[in-house]
Specification:
- With about 230 residues, this protein is an alpha+beta fold.
- It has helices spanning about 15-25, 45-50, 70-80, 90-115, 125-150, 165-185, 195-205, 205-210, 215-225; strands at about 5-10, 30-35, 55-60, 65.
- A 4-stranded mixed β-sheet has the order 2-1-3-4, covered by helices on one side.
- Helix 4 runs antiparallel to helix 5 and helix 4 (about 90-115) packs parallel to helix 6.
- The N and C termini lie far apart (about 55 Å).
- GO terms for molecular function: glutathione transferase activity.
- It comes from Taxus chinensis.
- Keywords: Transferase.
Length: about 230
Amino acid sequence: MKKELVRLLSLWASPYGLRVQLALKAKGIEYQYIAEDNKNKSELLLSSNPVYKKVPVLIHNETPICESLIIIEYIDETWPAPPPLLPSHPYDRYLVRFWSNFIDQKLIEVMGPVFSGITAENKSVVWKKGQDEFAQMAITIERGAAEMELRGLIYVEGKTCLGYMDLCFAPYVALFGAVEELFGLKLPGSEKCPKLQKWIQNLLTNEEVKLTLPDVDKIVKHIKEAFGAE
């Protein structure tokens, strides 16, 4: 049987690329990691993702697959051996897709202005608005985390592998630490978001998460260089 060639085009700081790395590791799939540079994108990336021209891209043999959450589903369907990444029940699949999409969209909505819209004149206003929206986002995710924990859809102590929802959310954990250090944006504590905080702490005990996520200090440095944040 011909050995399959699996390549991942990504950036070390991309939460979307990190979730694909975690998915490949969860499935035990051997792959070649190809580091990209946003300022000098390779011809392979541009030809593999001509629509968005961005990472991550999974190239399975010669077939490119784009968009991280779609890639995770592709991985789960192409390599169906345990552990499954998506739940089997239709409602559970709906739940993890819904909340993964919410988290991605809401973080872009909340963090985009903070990263790119701060000036000396509006700093305090942007930070205050960002903190309010960040906290409200977390409180909303708390509701989802409570239901998903009840249905066994998120990583808890004693669970052996990460699921779809964990793969989506885990890469943001390091980012949360970085934006707290840089901008003072802090998730509500356990008194307001007990399920969310428990989920975060449980994810941080997972060996693959610990090995895959970049250090907070490295992310802080990257954000400063990329966005001029101080």
